[in-house]
Amino acid sequence: MRIPENSFLRTTPIAHRGLHDIKKGIPENSYAAYQAAIDKNYAIEMDVRFSKDGKLVVFHDDTLDRTTEAKGPAISKTRNELLELHLQGTQQKIPVFEEFLEFVGGKAPLLIELKNVPERKDLVRATLAALKNYKGEFALQSFQPKYVYQMKKQAPQILRGQLATIPLKEESMPAVQKWALKNMPFHFLTKPDFISFNIANLPFSKARRKNALLLGWTARTEEEYLRVKPMIDNVIFEYITPEKL
């Protein structure tokens, strides 16, 4: 296994989209959420995707509807248009990826999820270019096995992970995609260093793979975390204080 014993992937609980709490005016994937995670010595899980003009921004959803005042696909707007929006009714703005890296500056480890962007083929290459001179600790992950394979080929020295889940029957996606999300059939090609699996589906025999850590996402209550804690190597969490449990 390539992951060192002192890696954050083993030792440090990971705050999902930063240590956010909208009841306190701290929206997800915002500078306020990242600063809160830094202050508590957590690692930060966050998301990167393209804007319409090919700039990297930190934003989770495929659409803008849930977390901004705008509507429609996130990729339908340029970086400057995205920067005009507000997150969840606050004054917080969508971060530009390079500026986010400068903001964190190695003060917290990063678990960077590359969002599937069918409109563009170069997300992995662009992300790696932005990270080229970054000095902090980080790892990459994605639901898209093609991206994980590209990580392996383009930057084999960087720790990489496969996100996975067992989709609900009512979820609208092709059956073969649901099967792949659950069974991770390309593991032998992508050879991820860790698996990030939906804790709602654990225990699941295929989630634990040889030579790979198992992370669990996303624990939102103490009960969820305590149930899954014996099954996983580290947790991605919201709204709880894992080290006290």
TrEMBL record:
Domain of life: Bacteria
Protein name in UniProt: Glycerophosphodiester phosphodiesterase
Domain GP-PDE residues, every copy: 11-245
GO molecular function: phosphoric diester hydrolase activity
Coiled coil: none
GO BP term (any one): lipid metabolic process
Phylogenetic placement of the source organism: Bacteria, Bacillati, Bacillota, Clostridia, Christensenellales
Gene3D superfamilies in UniProt: Phosphatidylinositol (PI) phosphodiesterase
